[in-house]
Write a structure and sequence with these properties.
The complex is a heterodimer of chains A (about 450) and B (about 350). Chain A is an alpha+beta fold and about 450 residues long. Chain A has ten helices and eleven strands. The radius of gyration of chain A is 28 Å and the shape is globular. Classes of the chains: A alpha+beta (about 450), B alpha/beta (about 350).
């Protein structure tokens, strides 16, 4: 096929036009263009999850397109390039609409009024009389400022992209560099918008906090313990990808392999909100490396998630008689007879059966304080889920049922599939999931939760 | 015969005169976590050390546990984690090491001990069963971090309960706060410091006595670290001997005296039997020599309504003491009670001077 020649702006080469029904053209390098193409999603305005096709990332496009058979650029590619631009323009329009809607529904004006009120409160000299309230106010102020900043940032970015589109149309040419920039802006902006929208879904009282994830091996022996270890890695990787600080604070090794249980402390905003859907039993089906005959085996592990509440924010009093506190002690006669660092503390809330164990601190008292704080956090969460207004009202059996609920199946053999049984979301890229790619599941669950619960006014400044 | 030292404390610096030539006062060893991080070690070397140390911990398995109720691999791994926390200043390095993450790197990290020391310290832990607390030079106890070294009994978690018993007694009788208190056989100063913080500034003076010069030094160091040198006076001497001046005036006495029967000591886990000071463990043939001495002394040292709490080796000793107090020292004490520790073992005898 004869190589296409397009009018080149700088006067190189003789213009020999082919009848291409477009007036724009593209500077292309001599290498063939490669596109990651998802044609069914092209130009679909309702799909916000499509991967945006864009030209390869070489920043400078120079090179002269010559009419020779060496050139591997085809007419189709040129048309694709044009489609590219149209797509970009459409995407910019869509995104601009989306930003506008978001700014409206977020009620920017109301937010700014809120900001003024909060700033006034902070300037008040009597603010620090109530330390806890002061910190809440400061946090609220930071939140509102951040929100306004984001909303304005979205606006600015979409306007930048719109400017580029306009420029391109006026210039009658597509500058590769600008095109890339616009495409990049839109891609990032859509990610940010997704995150923002998702954070609006996270309106529970503890969603903003960090999280503690407890993983325990369930039925299945050594295979289950190894599975628990894999889950541990998965959550640590997920946290790293989100740029959260993840710390494995407790790990109890299995005899042959894997772990019996582990706890991860994940610090960062909204960690709890994102991870709360991970609570439940995770089931794996695979050819077990621990089975002598290499048979297919099913194992279970349980994941529990609690908010990481700062100590002084939990001002809930639990009567002492409701608590059973036990300290692990090293056996033998105790006291001067023994010197083993066994400072683990276990606290059980008798009415509900909720138990928390804390081993990582270096003294019994420190472990006791931490365990109490975790216990309160757990009880508060359960109370909130049961819509109980007080811890006293929690129904005990709900605790066990929660843990037992199977939420996700991970099949390694004979086919590869991860399927969330609540939302139905599934993927066959199990390797990516085990490496921490949980976002699609997290998002699916949050949307599902939002859709199935009573819609509450999510605006909390 | 135990020499008696009389002390006349001057503000700031205790001075003592004695009948025997006294040794140069030893310097307390600085705990690892307080030393300056002047040593530079590459991340590669650190990681190699950490892997080696972890393997040594894992290789122990349950062997120590089965041998003499010593630590198992899980205990040792946890101790290693804390050793790393105490030795290395930068928290990112600490958490990366502890979670096994690093790639080899020639970047240098500031460490509070040399690489050779790190190897030697862990070797001592595993091969010689040197107690972890001596290795890092400190013990976390209740809400304190206390310096400890060879010659000092490492404060036990059970002993933390004594402070709870005092706290309960104070709720019943607020006046107890306003008198003199004494921690006998103070060792590291744990109970004395805990008491001072509990009783608050209404307590005019707290005395901490110990026979051992090392204890005197280390307890003084710990008291100073908590800035309590004006409220706690550390005295070198045996039990009540240095406290003649306040005879009959004490509001409260606490003690964790040696209470293990002599013949039982060698059967204990190596960390205790081979490394901790015998003088702090050995209570004589039935373990009760010092406890009985304390009961006798308490009768005359406490004022009326004064409180006491002693730690013992368990049910037998608790019952013996309670009987002793009720019969031999009839009329001296009242409201004697026996309190169990968290393992359910009857551990403490407490009561009041009537």
């Amino acid at each position: 096929m004869e190589g296409a020649v397009l009018p080149i702006p700088f006067g190189h080469g003789a213009p020999r036009r082919r009848s291409i029904p477009v007036s724009s053209f593209l500077n292309v390098p001599q290498k063939a263009l490669r596109f990651s193409w998802t044609p069914k999603k092209l130009g679909d305005p309702s799909s916000r999850w499509s991967s945006f096709p864009h030209p390869p990332s070489n920043g400078e496009c120079h090179g002269v397109l010559l009419a020779s058979n060496d050139v591997s650029v085809s007419t189709e590619t040129t048309e694709w390039a044009m489609q590219d631009f149209y797509t970009l323009r459409k995407e910019v329009e869509t995104t601009s609409e989306r930003v506008k809607e978001l700014r409206e529904s977020a009620n920017l004006k109301h937010l700014e009024e809120n900001l003024a009120d909060l700033e006034e409160a902070v300037a008040d000299s009597g603010l620090w009389d109530d330390r806890v309230k002061a910190q809440q106010t400061l946090q609220a102020l930071t939140d509102v400022k951040e929100k306004i900043k984001l909303l304005n940032e979205f606006q600015r970015q979409v306007e930048d992209a719109e400017t580029i589109v306009k420029l391109t149309e006026e210039m009658d040419s597509i500058d590769g560099g600008l095109f890339q920039e616009a495409a990049g802006i839109i891609k990032e902006l859509r990610k940010s918008l997704d995150r923002f929208e998702l954070s609006q879904l996270l309106s529970g009282p503890y969603d903003k906090e960090g999280a503690i994830v407890n993983i325990s091996a369930g039925a299945g022996g050594t295979d289950a313990q190894d599975w628990a270890d894999m889950l541990l890695r998965m959550y640590v990787r997920w946290a790293e990808k989100q740029r959260y600080k993840a710390k494995v604070v407790e790990k109890s090794m299995g005899e042959e392999a894997g772990i019996k249980s582990a706890s991860i402390e994940i610090e960062g905003r909204y960690a709890y909100g994102y991870l709360s859907g991970e609570k439940g039993t995770h089931r794996i089906v695979r050819q077990s490396p621990f089975n002598a005959k290499g048979l297919r085996q099913t194992s279970f592990s349980g994941v529990e998630v609690m908010p990481l509440l700062p100590d002084d924010s939990v001002n809930v009093e639990i009567p002492e008689e409701d608590l059973e506190i036990s300290f692990s002690r090293a056996g033998g006669k105790g006291g001067q007879n023994v010197n083993k660092v066994e400072t683990a503390v276990r606290i059980t809330h008798i009415p509900t059966g909720v138990t928390v164990r804390c081993t990582e601190e270096r003294s019994q008292l420190a472990n006791k304080i931490k365990a109490m704080s975790r216990l309160k956090a757990k009880l508060l969460v359960i109370a909130e889920e049961q819509r109980a207004s007080e811890i006293k009202q929690i129904k005990g059996d709900a605790v066990k049922a929660e843990w037992g609920q199977q939420i996700r199946n991970y099949v390694f053999h004979p086919y590869k599939l991860v399927k969330d049984v609540r939302t139905g979301h599934e993927t066959s890229d199990i390797a990516a999931v085990m490496d921490g790619e949980l976002d699609p599941f997290v998002k699916a669950y949050l949307k599902y939760k939002y859709a199935t619960s009573m819609p509450t006014v999510a605006e909390q400044a | 015969m135990q020499p008696v030292f009389k002390m006349r404390p001057k503000p700031g610096r205790p001075v003592f005169f004695s009948a025997v030539p006294c040794p140069v006062q030893p310097q307390p060893k600085i705990p690892l976590h307080l030393r300056a991080p002047t040593f530079r070690v590459t991340i590669t070397d650190l990681r190699l050390w950490h892997t080696w140390a972890k393997n040594r911990a894992n290789s122990v398995g349950s062997s120590f546990l089965n041998l003499d109720n010593g630590p198992d691999s899980e205990n040792l791994r946890r101790e290693l984690k804390w050793l790393v926390e105490d030795a290395i200043e930068q928290t990112e390095v600490v958490s990366a090491l502890n979670s096994g993450k690093f790639c080899d790197d020639d970047t240098e990290v500031c460490v509070r001990a040399s690489l050779d020391d790190l190897y030697e310290l862990w070797r001592q832990r595993i091969e010689e069963r040197r107690p972890f607390q001596y290795v890092v030079g400190c013990e976390h106890w209740r809400d304190l971090v206390l310096s400890v070294e060879e010659g000092i009994l490492i404060p036990r978690p059970e002993t933390e309960l004594i402070l709870d018993l005092v706290s309960d007694a104070m709720k019943v009788n607020e006046d107890l706060k306003c008198g003199f208190w004494a921690d006998l056989g103070t060792g590291s100063g744990a109970l004395a410091i805990g008491l001072a913080r509990l009783l608050g500034s209404s307590c005019p003076k707290l005395f901490a006595t110990d026979l051992s010069l090392t204890a005197f030094t280390v307890a003084s160091f710990n008291v100073k670290r908590y800035n309590l040198q004006d409220r706690i006076t550390v005295k070198l001497g045996s039990w009540f001997d240095p406290l003649e001046d306040v005879k009959g005036e004490l509001s409260g006495i606490v003690s964790n005296p040696p209470y293990i029967p002599s013949r039982d000591i060698q059967g204990l886990q190596a960390e205790v039997s081979k490394h901790e000071p015998r003088i702090a463990l050995d209570g004589g043939e039935n373990g009760m020599d010092d406890l009985v001495h304390l009961c006798d002394g308490a009768a005359s040292m406490l004022k009326h309504g004064g409180f006491f709490a002693f730690e013992t080796n368990g049910e037998t000793q608790c019952n013996f003491l309670a009987d002793y107090m009720e019969s031999k020292k009839k009329g001296s004490f009242c409201s004697i009670k026996i309190v169990s520790d968290f393992a359910g073992i009857q551990r403490f005898v407490a009561g009041y001077k009537s």
